[in-house]
UniProtKB/TrEMBL annotation:
Residues 396-411 have a biased composition (Basic residues). It is found in: Cell membrane. It catalyses: riboflavin(in) = riboflavin(out). This is Riboflavin transporter. The keyword Chloroplast does not apply. GO terms for cellular component: plasma membrane. InterPro entries: Riboflavin_transptr. Its main location: membrane. Keywords: Cell membrane, Glycoprotein, Membrane, Transmembrane, Transmembrane helix, Transport. It comes from Anser cygnoides (Swan goose).
Length: 434
């Protein structure tokens, strides 16, 4: 039963960001078809930031009307919306319309907003639900959340999206001069995009299948035993319940660990800087920094960097770094890789080493190391500092109190005790009324 619950928690976690991660790894193919072309990553970045109205709405509801918004119902609505949006995207992703005299992929952008709304809202709904289950399932959920980026990247690698080759094309041009027509032969290099191993329709259908699996896993997770909020019972077996008067704030989840204000300020500023680079600044210019080296470099950088993100988070989960010097050094290294990527984007379409294979390798590795180092910083900052290690003290405390349960204490009488009779020996108090 525990193994099945671990599997359900992992599958549930894969639905958190699978849709948006799928869009990023499919971009090398989408930019060759949709009218936005190289500007498409910038559109997606702006749409994702606009979708943060979902988490904002949930946060405000919990703040001003606590208890009104039920997390289980919200998750059902959010995941169902993701299933429908992914399914529609599979059939409507290349539909365009004319807006202000310019052709735009309206259906794709609108459905991208709904997918972003689903994934952004999952950040503030999935985790609180998982906190109601046993603590050991939380790690499995985080592993599944990492797989939400790894699985689409592996699928995109198998698809071979956006790979191109240069072909020498011979063209015949008729040139008329006076009464004579002369045929001139021109040789020209053209880019030919190799057909993908399977279509974009099938790719988005696979993403739809992962969202359906997430919905089914959540349905069965709601049937699992929960940790009671009042502290009665532990859900781990029989025994005496803990008395309500012994419950302390956050005792059920973790022991409180306090850090100096300077350290916390440094960590929060670190996370803000890293998140601004990885979620907003650099993704919007990835096409400008990679496409000058060819679609193969863009395909590999988008796919391998998406794989580096979950792998770095898994490493941060099992090998967290609690040294602020290490976090600062990794942040500087990741920022350096990001600065190189930004500089190449500024110099596009004629960047450094454009005609060399070293240029392709350097830009791909730069994006992989940029994503990997900063993802590790974000992951370890949350798990090792802002979320101290969980200590499930409740059930052990209950069992400890159960083993050393004292006898019933004597009741104290408020009446004035009578003096013992001289003819009788002093009565020994038994704690019971006569």
């Amino acid at each position: 039963m525990a193994l099945l619950t671990h599997l359900l928690a992992c599958v549930f976690g894969t639905g958190s960001w699978v849709a948006i991660n799928g869009l990023w790894v499919e971009l090398p193919l989408l930019v060759t078809v949709l009218p936005e072309q190289w500007e498409l990553p910038s559109y997606i970045t702006i749409i994702i930031q606009m979708a943060n109205v979902g988490p904002l709405f949930v946060t405000l509801m919990h703040r001003f009307w606590p208890g009104l918004l039920k997390e289980v119902a919200v998750i059902y609505v959010v995941v169902s919306l993701g299933v429908v949006a992914c399914l529609l995207l599979a059939f409507l992703w290349n539909q365009t319309s004319l807006i202000a005299g310019t052709l735009h992929s309206t259906a794709f952008l609108v459905l991208t907003f709904f997918l972003s709304l689903v994934d952004c809202t999952s950040s503030v709904t999935f985790l609180p639900f998982m906190m109601q289950l046993e603590p050991q399932y939380l790690t499995t959920f985080f592993i599944g959340e990492g797989l939400s980026g790894l699985i689409p990247a592996l699928i995109a690698l198998g698809q071979g999206s956006g790979i191109s080759s240069c072909v020498n094309v011979t063209r015949l041009v008729n040139v008329t001069s006076g009464n004579e027509t002369v045929e001139n032969v021109f040789f020209q290099m053209e880019t030919r995009y190799l057909p993908a191993n399977f279509s974009t329709l099938l790719f988005f259908l696979l993403m739809t299948g992962m969202m359906v699996a997430c919905l089914v896993a959540f349905f069965f997770l709601t049937r699992q035993p929960k940790i009671p909020e009042d502290g009665a019972g532990s859900g781990r077996g029989g025994g005496y319940p803990c008395p309500k008067k012994t419950k302390r704030p956050m005792e059920d989840h973790r022991e409180t660990v306090s850090y100096p204000l300077a350290k916390l300020t440094f960590i929060y500023l670190l996370i803000a800087w890293v998140s601004s680079l990885t979620n907003g600044v650099l993704p919007s210019v990835q096409s400008y920094s990679c496409l000058p080296y060819g679609n193969t470099a863009y395909h590999l950088s988008a796919t391998l960097s998406s794989m580096a993100n979950p792998l770095a988070c898994i490493v941060a989960m099992f090998l967290p770094g609690r040294s602020l010097a290490l976090l600062g050094a990794l942040t500087l290294a990741g920022t350096g890789f990001g600065a190189y990527n930004m500089a190449i984007a500024v110099m596009s379409p004629c960047p450094l080493l454009q005609q060399s294979q070293w240029g392709d390798a350097v830009i791909v590795l730069s994006w992989v190391f940029f994503t990997g180092t900063l993802s590790y910083v974000k992951g370890t900052s949350s798990t090792a500092w802002l979320l101290p290690p969980t200590t499930p003290t409740r059930s052990r405390g209950c069992r400890r109190r159960l083993r050393t349960r004292p006898t019933r204490p004597a009741r104290r009488s408020t009446a004035t005790p009578r003096a013992p009779s001289p003819a009788s020996p002093p009565a020994t108090s038994t704690g019971r009324r006569r």
